[in-house]
Amino acid sequence: MRALLLVGATTLLAAAAVVAPAVLPPEVAPIASASADACPNVQIVFARGTGEDPGVGTVGQAFVDSLRAQTTKGQSFAVYPVNYPASHDFLAATDGANDASSFIQNVATTCPDTKIVLGGFSQGAAVIDILAVAANPILGFTDPMPAEVADHVAAVAVIGNPSNRIKGPLTTLSPLYGSKTIDLCNGADPVCSPGDDVAAHSLYVQSGMADQAATFAAHLI
């Protein structure tokens, strides 16, 4: 496990060397969060990409909007933007993993019937990787999720995921979450593939992949 997360951290740093992470315009809708006295039907937890303003980011907002549109009318939604720097200090992705883990565990305990959807873009996808793969504290990740939390997670969507460059997709790396995960890479995006199409990393909304990820999640909730 230590080797896996070390590779993950190395992958993030390698991705930074290959392509400057996209800084996308802030288009963040109002955020709601789950509470013990008002449990939503669906709780989305999304980690934004590098350089994006606090919130779920542009790709995250497209994912949230599409997921809402594709699910049963009348279902209540809450959206939690993972709280972490999303800076060029890629090892700080563990801050996001700790924050998300704490929030997810609280929802699973206080709102056991709520269906949780996890998502992340770029460095945010690495945050979700850590959550889904690490079973023990390691490399700054101090709050791994108990195995039973997986029963409350309906779907996982990672987009522009750096781990694809070395270790492969999250679908094959996580025994607990792999079968409920979609891991998308836009063509030759160098952050998640050996390719060199730098612009592809900024086109996940335009390519339709945010919608594709939402469609996958909608079928599982």
Question: Order of strands side by side in the largest beta sheet?
Answer: 2-1-3-4-5
Low-confidence stretches: 1-36
Secondary structure: helix percent:
25-40%
The structural domain count equals 1
CATH class: Alpha Beta
Q: What is the succession of H and E elements?
A: HEHEHEHEHEH
User: What is the CATH fold-level name?
Assistant: Rossmann fold
Task: Kindly provide the radius of gyration, computed on alpha-carbon positions and rounded to a whole number of angstroms.
Answer: 16 Å
CATH superfamily: Alpha/Beta hydrolase fold, catalytic domain
| N-end to C-end Cα span | 30 Å
**How many beta-strand elements?**
5
User: Mean pLDDT, rounded to whole units?
Assistant: 84
Shape-level CATH architecture: 3-Layer(aba) Sandwich
Principal-axes geometry comes out as globular
Strand content: 5-15%
**Number of helical runs?**
6
Main sheet attributes: strand count, strand direction, barrel closure? 5 strands, parallel
What this model shows, in words?
This protein has 221 residues and is of the alpha/beta class. It has one domain: Rossmann fold (3-Layer(aba) Sandwich). The protein is 33% helix and 13% strand. The chain has 6 helices and 5 strands. Strands 2-1-3-4-5 form a 5-stranded parallel sheet, with helices on both faces. Helix 5 links the parallel strand 4 and strand 5. Helix 2 crosses helix 6 and helix 3 crosses helix 4. The longest helix has 18 residues. The protein is globular and about 45 Å long. The N terminus is likely disordered.
